[in-house]
Amino acid sequence: PSIPRHTNRLINEKSPYLLQHAHNPVDWYPWGQEAFDKAKRENKLIFLSVGYSTCHWCHVMEEESFKNKEIGEIMNKNFVCIKVDREERPDVDKVYMTFVQATSGGGGWPMSVWLTPDLKPFVGGTYFPPEDRVHRVGFRTVLLRIAEQWRENRDTLLENSQKILEALLHSSEIRVRGQESPPPSKEVMATCFQQLSSSYDEDYGGFSESPKFPTPVNLNFLFTYWALHRTTPEGARALQMALHTLKKMAHGGIHDHIGQGFHRYSTDQLWHVPHFEKMLYDQGQLAATYSRAFQVSGDEFFADVTKDILLYVSRDLSDEAGGFYSAEDADSYPTTASTEKREGAFCVWTAEEIRALLPDPVEGATEGITLGDIFMHHYGVKETGNVSPMKDPHQELKGKNVLIVRCSLELTAAQFGLEPGQLGALLQEGRRRLSTARAQRPRPHLDTKMLAAWNGLMISGFAQAGAALAKPEYISRAVQAAAFLRRHLFDPASGRLLRSCYRGKDNTVEQSTVPIQGFLEDYAFVIQALFDLYEASLEQGWLEWALQLQHMQDKLFWDPKGFAYFSSEAGDPSLLLRLKDDQDGAEPTANSVTVTNLLRAACYSGHAEWVEKAGQILAAFSERLQKIPIALPEMARATAVFHHTLKQVVICGDPQGEDTKEMLRCVHSIFSPNKVLMLADGDSAGFLYRQLPFLASLERKDGKATAYVCSNFSCSLPITSTQKLRGMLCL
């Protein structure tokens, strides 16, 4: 590679996204005091650009504008330019995205915001083309206009930015208003179900026309709704909606049939043509959701999809030290000789390529039929490509095919006169060959940043799948990742989590010079992961760490006046607002997850004030939960857990005993949204017995492994039969 012409301060950063911009002619600064001081000293406006390394339009804006020498000169002359990786600094991203959404009615990345030297926003947008177009003003024009405004109308600009900030402060406040009780769970659940039901796509599943996102939060809500209304028509519909959506997604092009795992989202109603990036947080949540679908339905199809996701993550997103990487990009070079990246190039196929790879005649099939014919029929491959031009504005997928399962095994088998079992083996062989061929293509960029929050979601995925599918190797992988978090993303001296670490040279794990402290979501998702990991592994050390982190979360983020938790801690003068997220989207919000975390923490510790805090979060979000619970399906789900009181399922027995293992397998095989599991192993000096004195009074009946189902620390009669236990848990 040639020696780069330009190098800016981002060369000293660890974030893959910031490093991608280290050779732009723009004099980029990372978010920090050096940039703020320069803006104040020179009385210059700040141009803030926020994105992430797998964001397609971020790449486009960089190619068109930030690599353009003339535009770079305009930026350097008039502005102090700051680049932020939103995955490293969700707090900075959220403050300015709140502004962009409030002032432009939309948002997204790349986010482009202009700030006064004291960091107050006054103009913002997302992607700008470099030059003026018919319906869009160009980036160059915007830069020159804003620079002129600053020279000629500085006082008005400053005044307006102050007014904007005051309005944002007022409109973004979430707090208890007068009433301090949580909203009625029954109504919240019913409204949320109705809202999801009316936006549901009966044909293809999902909850919108297009684009379609996986949104596991919606599916988890529906599973809980079903579990509480099993015998009603609404309950049956909730289950059908969730399972149908999961089936359609797994058959769709959003699912990578050759390389496993799920792409970010579908651009169409059929789950067919995706945006091809793969995010860790999707894999973690979907692994948990598909294993829940298996628990509920007993259908091996869902277990297979879970295994497929975990295979992808183990192979492609795993660091050898035990952590999980953040994402794989959508864009890559079509061949080793290409000079330009294309979206989806790594994943798509021409009919010709598939025919060449699968030329074998198939024994027992209709005369003259090849493996290629069968594969192309089953996966919807067309000679001219199967992507509608409407879904391919840049013509990057012309003549290409995104694989999508078009018919059932039975139908395809019948079409070619084969047995379904034989067809399954043929398709598997076809996928194996395509996978080998694909391995020769240049891979997409891998974002090797490791984030505490997303690692938490992935640990939950492995732990829950390990328990539900009875796969100890998944639980071991979760344990390995939790040990990684402890070693690299936790500071034992302060008891605090760190946000991120990075894969360095020689595959070592590196930390920034000044580590980024963990945010609320890091605590919420890691605590949830540790509870899931305890239930799967029954190692009490994870429980102890979860409770320590919960105390730390309370200390750093709790709002004692308005209730609920702030997303970031106090004391950072560069953050204009302390916000509380109010939308369960691609990821659940931290407050939503924390409601259930607190209820679990109370069950494992006996601390009643955690139950009270859970109720106070629900009270703070009460208005939103009653009007538009569809915006907070995970929190709506948590209202039911709060209302029904968690069942403590205690198994008294020897951890190595076959009878104990049988009891545990029974508990793990049942989807019961309002239970916590604990093993009373008789070690009265252990962590759980010290936390929960009532455990000492529970005994093994006739020396056998015995279960007790307790609520508020009062327990059922002893149960020694798994059948009886199953009945108790399904109530």
From TrEMBL:
Spermatogenesis-associated protein 20-like TRX domain residues: 7-168
Entry's Gene Ontology BP terms: carbohydrate metabolic process
Spans through the membrane: none
CDD domains: SSP411
Pfam families: Thioredox_DsbH (PF03190)
Cited InterPro entries: 6-hairpin_glycosidase_sf, 6hp_glycosidase-like_sf, Ssp411, Ssp411-like_TRX, Thioredoxin-like_sf
Superkingdom field: Eukaryota
Name of this protein: SPT20 protein
Species of the source: Bucorvus abyssinicus
